[in-house]
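Quick one, tokens below:
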């Protein structure tokens, strides 16, 4: 998230130094399943989860497996800073591999202990934004995720989820109109007690013209 925010200060010398350091750190860490030993472990012994171990992204903290949110945010950061990397391609592959069968994304996997997991609006929105940033928009998994997000939030009053969805579905005029009304309505109640992150996301989502996290700042 810090790299995405700093993209609008790219001309500052101190920003460049911090950004280079941050990308260096991102390049050094990867989901633990990317290591050959863990690939062997998941393939032969640990079958409680279902995913392709050759397709991995970024973990929340070093030494753990890949998760949808940090992978999606890392992909977006590479895009807004125009940083080509093989890791981005691998991260995109991971997102496509771990999509839920019903559409959208759960926090990490689509299946665990033989149980099909359900998607979550926020993770689904992050995945859509990341794939959209890389031009993956017509893929069936993307379309399925968009359908899930639109239907899942049809009657929602959750500011946090609605804000993410509005940014993710910005190219869908029908969905944008509905989500915008719902988001504005959600802000009419209990604003003083809403989490700061929800209010911040709502402010970004309601920008006019709409915020585009996939656009490279100039």
């Amino acid at each position: 998230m810090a790299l995405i925010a700093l993209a609008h200060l790219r001309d500052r010398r101190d920003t460049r130094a911090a950004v280079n350091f941050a990308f260096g750190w991102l390049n050094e860490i990867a989901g633990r399943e990317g290591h050959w030993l863990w690939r062997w472990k998941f393939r032969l012994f640990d079958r409680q989860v279902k995913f392709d171990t050759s397709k991995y992204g970024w973990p929340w903290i070093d030494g753990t497996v890949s998760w949808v949110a940090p992978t999606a945010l890392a992909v977006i950061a590479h895009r807004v800073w125009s940083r080509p990397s093989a890791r981005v391609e691998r991260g995109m592959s991971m997102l496509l591999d771990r999509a839920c069968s019903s559409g959208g994304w759960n926090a990490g996997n689509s299946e665990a202990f033989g149980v099909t997991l359900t998607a979550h609006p926020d993770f689904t929105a992050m995945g859509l934004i990341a794939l959209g940033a890389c031009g993956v928009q017509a893929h069936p998994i993307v379309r399925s995720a968009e359908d899930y997000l639109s239907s899942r939030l049809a009657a929602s009053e959750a500011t946090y989820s609605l804000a993410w969805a509005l940014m993710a579905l910005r190219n869908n005029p029908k969905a944008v109109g509905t989500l915008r009304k719902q988001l504005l309505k959600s802000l009419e109640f209990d604003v003083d007690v809403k989490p700061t992150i929800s209010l911040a996301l709502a402010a970004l989502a309601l920008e006019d013209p709409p915020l585009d996290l996939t656009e490279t700042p100039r």
